[in-house]
Amino acid sequence: MALFPTYKRNGIRPIQAEGVKVKDEQGKEYLDFTSGLGVCNLGHAHPQVKKALQQQMDAVWHVSNLFEIPLQERVAERLAQLSGLDFAFFCNSGAEANEAAIKLARRYAQVVRGIKAPQIISFHSSFHGRTLATLTATGQEKVKTGFDPLPPGFHYATFNDIDDLQARIGTDTAAVLLELVQGEGGVRPADMAFVQAVEAECRQRDILLIVDEVQTGMGRTGDVFAFQRWGIQPDIVTLAKGLGNGFPIGALLGRGGLEKVFSAGSHGSTFGGNPLAMAVADAVLDCLTTPGFLTESRALGEHLGQLLQTRLEPLPGIRSVRGLGWMWGVELERPVAPLLHALAQKGLLATPAGEKVLRLLPPVVTTKAQVEQAVNLIEETWLELEEVVTDGSVSGV
Ligand SMILES: Cc1ncc(COP(=O)(O)O)c(C=O)c1O
């Protein structure tokens, strides 16, 4: 195989996908509770999004940012209105959006606050991407191994510990970079009081609060943006995954005042915000803002969480169930790999978060019946595996 072995793949070869269902080469159908890693929030090949992309393919694909792109202006305006922020910059992935946020924060600190070597504080167990700056901002050693020398200017505080953050803030702190639910780090929601204290601390010291909504945004936690659930107003928000529902896209949103430091020539992207991506994002926003859509969807996501809590938490070998909206983690006492494998065999696709957490990221359009089917499958499969372990007939499961 002529591919770098950078991924540990699961052996499934999907060739078709629609809504919550994925079909493989053998014609086997799966319920997809991965959404392509939190991307296809509206389900695969959503008809409205597909139609928008098809129509745009007949118009114009790509012209570059040398040109004015009306759809880009429109999506920027919509995102600004929805987020309470003022400006958007478009790129192609979550890492690129965070890279842009880091650059913007550094430049703001230098130009506006006169800080020569601006520092950024992120959190242990966070995940912000795989570029050199974003892997450095990521609070997990495993993504950094072998990539020295890493860029300077990054520090790590303990998630959900305001005292630790305060102790690390100095006069050269430019920004705090925060996930409201640590996704890759094990589906860990931030405490309400912690987040509000972080916001207050940032406001008081003119430190930029960057909220990484690459995974939590676009309906994943029940609102367009997760920060709305925490009742805060970040200075910068980064987006990707769900904004394109499968079409590569990334976005940086920033408050008024920041546009002065991101002047012409200071940052850019060849593909970022091209008409195809913008047509898709526009359609995604249409769906998410349809009256009643997110209210109904959020209630079903919470139903999934309640079922997981009541049915799985009491079972032996299960530590806890946590999350919100359509983002749930089931922490096990053992590695999650055998459970993922057994679930896939029974037709349910899920993803790991770390070694021992089963992460469920179903499309936000998953039906009640599909939610219940998935919980039944997880319960049944876990009990079967548990029996094998307690029997002692197989060890190391
Ligand atoms: C919170 C968060 N930030 C950033 C990224 C990186 O996004 P991408 O893989 O699109 O570069 C991810 C990806 O999982 C993520 O979950």
Automatic annotation (TrEMBL):
N(2)-acetyl-L-ornithine binds at R130, S269. It is found in: Cytoplasm. It catalyses: N(2)-acetyl-L-ornithine + 2-oxoglutarate = N-acetyl-L-glutamate 5-semialdehyde + L-glutamate. Its EC number is 2.6.1.11. It holds the Pfam family Aminotran_3. It comes from the Bacteria. It is an enzyme of class 2 (transferase). PROSITE patterns: AA_TRANSFER_CLASS_3. InterPro entries: AcOrn/SuccOrn_fam (IPR004636), Aminotrans_3 (IPR005814), Aminotrans_3_PPA_site (IPR049704), Class-III_PLP-dep_AT (IPR050103), PyrdxlP-dep_Trfase (IPR015424), PyrdxlP-dep_Trfase_major (IPR015421), PyrdxlP-dep_Trfase_small (IPR015422). GO terms for biological process: L-arginine biosynthetic process. Its cofactor is pyridoxal 5'-phosphate. Keywords: Amino-acid biosynthesis, Aminotransferase, Arginine biosynthesis, Cytoplasm, Pyridoxal phosphate, Transferase. Pyridoxal 5'-phosphate binds at G94, A95, F127, D212, E213, V214, Q215, T270. Pathway: Amino-acid biosynthesis; L-arginine biosynthesis; N(2)-acetyl-L-ornithine from L-glutamate: step 4/4. Binds 1 pyridoxal phosphate per subunit. The modification N6-(pyridoxal phosphate)lysine is found at K241. One of its GO terms (cellular component) is cytoplasm. GO terms for molecular function: identical protein binding; N2-acetyl-L-ornithine:2-oxoglutarate 5-aminotransferase activity; pyridoxal phosphate binding. SUPFAM superfamilies: PLP-dependent transferases. Belongs to the class-III pyridoxal-phosphate-dependent aminotransferase family. ArgD subfamily. PANTHER family: ACETYLORNITHINE AMINOTRANSFERASE, MITOCHONDRIAL (PTHR11986:SF79), AMINOTRANSFERASE CLASS III (PTHR11986). Homodimer. May also have succinyldiaminopimelate aminotransferase activity, thus carrying out the corresponding step in lysine biosynthesis. This is Acetylornithine aminotransferase. The gene is argD.
